[in-house]
Amino acid sequence: MEIINLFSSEKGFQECVERYDGDDLISRLPDDILLVILSFLPLKEAGRTSVLSSRWRNLWSYTSHLNFDDYSSMEKIIEDPEFRGVEREKYVKWVDSVLQSHRGSTVKELRICFSLVKSAGKSITKWLEFAFERHIEKLELNLSDGECVHHPHEVYAFPRELCSNISSDHPYKSSRLFG
C-alpha cells in the first residue's frame, strides 16, 4: 500500500527518489532472481539488458526460457512476400547466434515461431538437439506464418531419432508442433 501512496503524487515520487538516492536496487538481487525476471522478457529485450552493467553483460545467456517469436519480422513477410528469404535468413542467424552464446545447462522452454521451410532444416535440427541436450521441458515449434501454405517438398521433417533419444527420466513435459 505504501508504494501506491508514494507514487500517487509528485511529492510522493520525489520522496521515493530521495529515500533510495539513485540506488540500483534490482541489481542487488541474486542472479537466480534476475534470471527469473529475464525469463519473462522477450529474448531480444533480455539480451538488451547486457548494456546495463558488467554484471548484466552475460546474465541473459543463462536464461532457461528461450522464446524466439519474432512477430515484427513475420508481419513484414505477410505484408510483402519479397522479404521472406531475407527475413528467414536473419531469423536463422539470430537463433544460431543466441544458442551459441547460451551458457545455461538446462532449458525449460524453447519457442521457435517463424515461417521456416526445409532449407533451414539443418539449423532447426541443431536447435532441437541443443534443446534436448539441455533437458527441455516444453517445446513449441511453429514454422508457419499462418498465411501461406508450404508445398509438401518445402516442409521441415521432424527427425524421429530426436524423440527416440529421450530417456524415461527426462523432464520433457509437452510439445506443440506446427508446420
Give a quick rundown of the structure.
43% of the residues lie in helices and 11% in strands. It is an alpha/beta fold.
What does this molecule look like?
By secondary structure, the chain is α/β, with parallel strands linked by helices. It has a domain at 64-178. The chain is built from eight helices and four strands. Strand 3, helix 8 (160-164) and strand 4 form a beta-alpha-beta unit. Helix 6 packs parallel to helix 7. The longest helix is centred in the middle third of the chain and has 18 residues, at 84-101. The chain is globular. InterPro entries: F-box-like_dom_sf, F-box_AtFBL13-like, F-box_dom, FBL60-like. Residues 23-71 form the F-box domain. It comes from Striga hermonthica (Purple witchweed).
What's the helix-strand series? HHHHEHHEHEHE
Strand order of the largest sheet: 1-2-3-4
Strand fraction equals 5-15%
Shape label: globular
Rg over CA atoms? 20 Å
Q: How many DSSP E strands?
A: 4
> So how many helices?
8
Structural class: alpha/beta
Helix content: 40-55%
Distance N to C terminus: 48 Å
Let me know the largest β-sheet: 4 strands, parallel
Detail the poorly predicted runs: 1-7
Instruction: Report the average pLDDT across residues.
Output: 78
Protein name: F-box domain-containing protein
Domain F-box: 23-71
InterPro entries: F-box-like_dom_sf, F-box_AtFBL13-like, F-box_dom, FBL60-like
Keywords for this entry:
globular; 179 residues; 4-stranded parallel sheet; F-box_dom; F-box domain-containing protein; F-box-like_dom_sf; alpha/beta; 43% helix; F-box_AtFBL13-like
